[in-house]
Every structure is written in C-alpha cells, then in structure tokens.
Amino acid sequence: MASILWVLVDAWRGYRMRSWLRRGDLAMAPQMSGWWGVLSDRARKLLRDRERSIAAGEQRLKDFLSAIQASPNGVVMLDANAQIEWSNQTAANHLGIHPERDVMQRVGNLLRDPVFTAYMAVEHPVDPVVMAGHRHRMSSPVRISVQRHRYGEGKQLLLTRDVTLLEQAEAMRRDFVANVSHEIRTPLTVLSGFVETLQTLDLDTDEQHRYLALMALQAVRMQGLVEDLLTLSRLEGSPVPNFINTVPLSSLLVACESEARGLSDIIAKGAPPHHIAFESSSLLDQALLMGEQRELQSALSNLVTNAVRYTPAGGHINVSVEQAADASLSIAVRDTGAGIAAEHLPRLTERFYRVDRSRSRESGGTGLGLAIVKHVMQRHGGSLSITSELAKGSCFKLTFPANRWRIAP
Ligand code: ADP
C-alpha cells in the first residue's frame, strides 16, 4: 500500500515537473523535496543561466545596432534574396528607404537607379559605385557612394557614404589646376614668342628695348600670379592668426595710400591721376585690429589697388572707417569706376573669376585678389561685403566684429 502511495506521489511530482518544464517559467518552479527537488533546482539554475545568456546576447546585439546607428556611414543588411533585413537611419537618408516600413522589401524594387541596378548585377564588385542620392536635385546635387560586401550564407552588406563634398572638392581642384595652367601659359606663350623674335630677327636697339620691356611685363605678370598663389596657399595651410597681436589700422592705411598713389601715377601715364582720399578720423587713428599684420595689409591693399585699377584716371577713390551700432568696425573703399553688374557680385570672390578678363589682365590682375581678401576676413572673424552700380562705382567694405578690434589705450 505504501509503495503504491509512493509511486503515485512520485508520478504526481514527475507530472508537476514536466508541466513546469513545458511552460519554462522560472517563477513557477515547483517546490519539492528529495530527488525531484534537486532536479527542479538544477533545472531552474540551467534555465536561469540560459535566460541570462539570452539577455546578454540581446543587449550585445542592441549595443551593436545602436553603434551602427550612430555611424556616419549608412549600413543596409540584405538577406539571401536581396531583401532588406535591417538598415540604419543614415542609409535610409542616403537612399530614401524607410528603416522599418521597408524591412523585407527587395532592395532592387525600392532603388530603381540604373547605376545601382547594374552594380547589384555584378557578382563580385571590387570598387564602390557612386550614384545620385535620395535628395539629389540639379541645383543641389547629392552623390552617394555604395559598396557591396557578401557575408554569411548569401547575405549582403551595403555600405553607403555621402561623397558630395568630396566630389565637389575634387572638381574644384581640377578647375583650379586647369585655371592656373591657363593663367601661366598665356604670359609664357607671349614671352617665348618675343624670345623667338629676338633670336631670329635682326632688330635695332630701340626695337630690342621695346621687346625687352614687353617681356619684362609678362615676367612681372607671372610673378604676381605666383605670389598670389603662394599667399592663398599660405592662408589655407597656416593656423588661424594669433589674436593677441594688434595692428594699428593707421599704419595699414598709410602703406595702402602710398601704394595707391604710386599705382595711380603709373596708370594715368601723365594724365591727371585719381583723386585719392583717406578720410582722417580719431577712430582711424586709434583703432587696433587683432590679427596678422601681413594678411590684413594684403586684404586692404588688394581693395585699394583694385579701386585704382578699375577706375579711370581722374576718378575718385575714398577710404573711410566707420563704427556701427553693434560696435563692429568697417573699412569702406569706394570708387567712381566702371561698377559691376549685380549678377557678377556673388561670384567675385571665386578664384580666377573676372567680370572683364582682358581688362583685368591689362591692369596686371591675377583674378585672385578678392579670393585672398575673403579668406583673410574669414580667418579674422570678419566679412567682406560688396555693393556696386554699373557706371557709377563700387564700395568694398571690410567689417570686423566688436571682439576683433579695440581702441588704443
Ligand atoms: P583681378 O586681379 O582680376 O582684379 P580680383 O579678385 O581682385 O581679380 O577681382 C575680381 C574681379 O572683380 C575683377 O576682375 C574685376 O572684374 C572685379 N572688380 C574688383 N574690384 C573692382 C572695382 N573696384 N571696380 C570694378 N570691378 C572690380
């Protein structure tokens, strides 16, 4: 009788154990004594270990995915059928897909760009492909590089990168090299033409001198171009100016004034030179600019010499210093020259941009002056503003914010 009872109790314990294991709920573990108790404790420990390791795995996966989510590059995981398993927000922005809604969609159905389709058809692509991005417009191009890698069993990883700025920088570099080559080739061709003339023709002394003078002019032009190029590269390559240094504005303007008068005499060639006025004021006498003397001098002298070069002899050039209500300081260079049509104004500070190419060259221009001015002002926390009216004249203004200048004690 006792044995039967024992077998029944044992069977009932076994039944409880089996029902609990089926449910797999740790909190509902049966409390039993004897062998069944040992067994249930052991099973409970194993279950707890398994739950812990699943939770740790899930946490690792979450951390991993949020790390990829924070990446500046786009990541899309595709299954063996090229269906999207997961994508981060960056890839979604690059490609115009939705990280949740488009899960399990075939990527080829979502991205119809022929460049992408052709790329996906290649079995083992080596290089990335560059295609138009989701927000690409003719007016504001967006270029995305996509690279595909195979992993696991037939799965694929797409890595995307925004290369718009990189492509723009590369195009600018190409344009710049082409422009520099062109600018150097022009005087060089003239120069070698004169050399050939001198070598082949039997010229009298006067003619020889005339040719040599023309050759010297071309050499000076090339020298000016190389100097401006070196200035630009110095501005790009050196650290921002030290703002502990102060430069008296009056000393900069004194140097500019003598430069302007000298240039005006050369340009006027005996005719009445320009009327050049540097308005004196206590502000001009006392203002100290914070920054690099050499750079500030180059910016100001570019503006003043431009005013002389683009104003017919006899015209007026006026340089004044003003303080605005926000305590910023402006140096305005006004001329009564040819003026500039409104459509050119936004492009004047681009390298080698000229309104009138031949006029710029005739007067010894390199097309880099205003690019240098803009760069110097950016490095000094200031700005260049240009207003102009055709046939009336122009005003080029350098503005320094309140924290970039002060009154001499
Ligand atoms: P450049 O060496 O050709 O003068 P800049 O960069 O100094 O090059 O100026 C760019 C262009 O802006 C010039 O080619 C000229 O067309 C125009 N420009 C600059 N300053 C003046 C000015 N004071 N009056 C009229 N046009 C100007």
Structural class: alpha+beta
Give the overall silhouette.
Answer: elongated
CATH topology of the largest domain: Heat Shock Protein 90
**Order of adjacent strands in the largest pleated sheet:** 2-1-5-4-3
CATH architecture of the largest domain: 2-Layer Sandwich
The residue ranges in which pLDDT falls below 50 over 5 or more consecutive positions are none
Question: Helix-strand pattern, N to C?
Answer: HHEEHHHEEEHHEHEHEHEEHHEEE
CATH-assigned homologous superfamily of the largest domain: Histidine kinase-like ATPase, C-terminal domain
Query: What is the CATH top level name of the largest domain?
Result: Alpha Beta
Throw out a few tags for this protein:
five-stranded mixed sheet, alpha+beta, Beta-Lactamase, five-stranded antiparallel sheet, 12 helices, 4 domains, Helix Hairpins, 409 residues, binds adenosine-5'-diphosphate
Provide a compact summary of the structure.
It is built from twelve helices and 13 strands. The protein has four domains: 2-69, no CATH class; 71-162, Beta-Lactamase, CATH 3.30.450.20; 168-238, Helix Hairpins; 241-409, Heat Shock Protein 90 (2-Layer Sandwich). It has helices spanning 2-23, 34-70, 89-95, 107-110, 114-121, 164-200, 205-237, 249-268, 282-286, 293-309, 357-362, 369-379; strands spanning 74-78, 84-87, 129-132, 143-151, 155-162, 246-248, 275-278, 287-290, 316-323, 329-335, 383-389, 393-400, 405-407.
